Amino acid sequence: MDYGTFQGILTLVLMITFIGIVLWAYSSRRKKSFDEAANLVFSDEQKDVESKDSGETK
């Protein structure tokens, strides 16, 4: 196996890996999990607001 054949096989493996990751990321089975992960920042913010409201007295 020469260097050109190795490069071709490596390119093919990387392309298949890339296509697999794209299909995984955009699959409908993962949508709920990704939506929950995207909203984690806002749920943490809500906890901060609730703790400030209940803990602060002026």
Automatic annotation (TrEMBL):
The chain crosses the membrane at residues 6-26. Pfam families: FixQ (PF05545). InterPro entries: Cbb3-typ_cyt_oxidase_comp. CDD domains: cbb3_Oxidase_CcoQ. Keywords: Membrane, Transmembrane, Transmembrane helix. This is Cytochrome oxidase. It comes from the Bacteria.
